[in-house]
Amino acid sequence: MAWLALIIAGLLEVVWAIGLKASEGFTRLWPSVVTLTAMSASFWLLAQAMKTIPVGTAYAIWVGIGVVGTFILGILYYGETLSLLRVLSVLLIVAGLVGLKLAG
Known about the structure:
Elements: H1 2-22, H2 29-49, H3 55-78, H4 84-103
């Protein structure tokens, strides 16, 4: 159950990161509401996951899901640059996350 909470927390991190961009510095109401709601839920779920998952692993997985998801959505929705070096860099992050999960 802790891993499910952690994965959902990571996905919500993607929502709030993209929402933060969409809120335009919290000047747009609904994107700001979505961002703050996703942020709160993400932190709460992360805290629940940390009850049983080691803090370093939980935090790295949470951030990693956020980084990879935000990277992908930034390319798809905001036209951010897609280059070989950026993709390889994100793949290194994913390899690190897999390594953390396998290490326990």
